[in-house]
Specification:
The protein is mainly α and 414 residues long. It has 19 helices and no strands. The chain has a single domain, classed as Up-down Bundle (Growth Hormone, Chain: A), CATH 1.20.1250. The longest helix is centred in the N-terminal third of the chain and has 30 residues. The radius of gyration is 20 Å and the shape is globular. The two termini are 24 Å apart. This is MFS transporter. It is a multi-pass membrane protein. One of its GO terms (molecular function) is carboxylic acid transmembrane transporter activity.
Length: 414
């Protein structure tokens, strides 16, 4: 066990130690790449010769390939993180997505683009879960919420940085920048140490990283499912409402075209403040659940405003994107709870697979949205999918355990 610090100065020193900073910078690069595609989707597809009528379906296809890679990568990196250690994931994942990012800058055809988005997804899948797992295990429980808030906030800044880099440079150069940043961070990670909690468990004869343990016990499976469902509203907003904001702007009858990159940047600017606020509020109220419930309700409110209010100007549309981002700022809490709900021998598996299953849920959500779009129109279809994700999140949160004061030095048993 890590000794509890005795003063505020000691708390700050613990909070700003190297594993926390490296995990935060890694997530910055991770989110840069993840949302760079949303920013450069239209210009990159046009450069590859895709017609205007195919920008949405081909964009969804590429997004789905990326998310499929994240689903598979989430399982691989999660299991590896519990079997071999958190650091093995932090090294392997950043190398793969950095090289894939550079490769994206060289694509000349749609199949190449799809293949490299899949590989990038494989690499991106490991970063957040391994980073949050390491941070929750190296920090004392009274400040680990602050640590994961730092990680999540830096990640959101990466998404904002993607907009500004893409605005300054051609889309291929933007991919090269992301790859280069990742390779630079790889060098910094050489000095990071492994979690002591994990090292103790590794020396014991304990089953680690066994994915089937999440499914062969009913109570454990329901906890796992709850973790996934509470995150669905975040990726409904990001993966559908924001990524395809130009199409929503058209459906609303806006006279000026919506710039997807700007919508992404403003949404994630809002999420920076939301992540900071949700993290601080959870520490103040000493509850993850109460704060998360408030943010899910706030997210639903602004989804309804986005889809139902008569947004007649581009400035009002972008303003709503900012508030959607603020309401989506419970990503740090969502991943922290996933890490805190499970023992050390399954923690990396859960913390890595859960956010990637939420991201991967974009595949059925976009499929449902596209099907409904043909039946009831763009706005009504999105409304139906949004209400569904919010309902599932509220039900899951109601049955979820409060984890704020939970001691993480324990293991799951068969």
């Amino acid at each position: 066990m890590i000794e509890q610090p005795k003063s505020q100065e000691s708390l700050r020193k613990q909070l700003l130690q190297l594993p926390v900073l490296v995990a935060a910078l890694g997530y910055l690069v991770d989110m840069y790449d993840l949302f760079l595609f949303s920013v450069v989707r239209v210009p990159s597809l046009k450069a590859l010769g895709v017609g205007a009528d195919q920008l949405l379906p081909d964009g969804i296809m590429l997004l789905n390939w990326q998310m499929a890679g994240m689903l598979i990568g989430g399982i691989f990196w999660g299991v590896l993180g519990d079997k071999r250690g958190r650091l093995s994931v932090l090294f392997g994942s950043i190398l793969i997505y950095s090289l894939a990012n550079i490769g994206n800058g060289f694509v000349t055809s749609l199949p190449q683009y799809a293949a490299l988005r899949f590989v990038a997804g494989l690499g991106l899948a490991g970063e957040l879960g391994a980073g949050v797992t390491l941070v929750t295990e190296v920090l004392p429980k009274q400040i680990r919420g602050y640590g994961t808030t730092i990680v999540a906030t830096m990640g959101v800044l990466g998404a904002i940085m993607a907009y500004f880099v893409a605005d300054l440079f051609e889309w291929r150069i933007s991919y090269f920048v992301g790859g280069g940043l990742g390779l630079m961070l790889l060098v910094l990670r050489m000095n990071v140490f492994e979690s002591k909690i994990f090292e103790v468990v590794k020396e014991r004869q304990v089953k680690r990283g066994d994915l089937m343990m999440l499914f062969n016990d009913r109570k454990r499976f329901l906890k796992y499912l709850q973790c996934i469902l509470v995150g669905l509203p975040i990726w409904f907003v990001v993966g559908i409402l924001v990524t395809f904001s130009p199409e929503f702007g058209q459906a609303m009858g806006l006279t000026e075209p919506v710039v997807a990159g700007k919508a992404v940047m403003l949404t994630f600017t809002g999420q920076v403040f939301g992540d900071i606020a949700s993290g601080l509020l959870s520490q103040y109220f000493k509850s993850r659940k109460k704060v998360m419930g408030s943010f899910i309700a706030l997210s639903l409110l602004f989804v309804l405003i986005y889809l139902l209010a008569p947004l007649k100007s581009l400035s009002m549309f972008y303003l709503v994107c900012i508030f959607l981002g603020i309401a989506n700022g419970y990503w740090a809490l969502f991943v922290t709870i996933a890490a805190e709900l499970f023992g050390t021998n399954l923690r990396a598996t859960v913390a890595t697979t859960v956010p990637n299953f939420v991201r991967g849920a974009v595949i059925p959500l976009t499929s449902l949205f596209v099907y409904g779009k043909g039946q009831v129109g763009t706005l009504n279809s999105a409304l139906g999918v949004g209400l569904l994700t919010a309902a599932l999140a509220f039900i899951a949160l109601y049955f979820m355990e409060e984890t704020f004061r939970k001691d993480l030095n324990y293991v799951e048993t068969d």
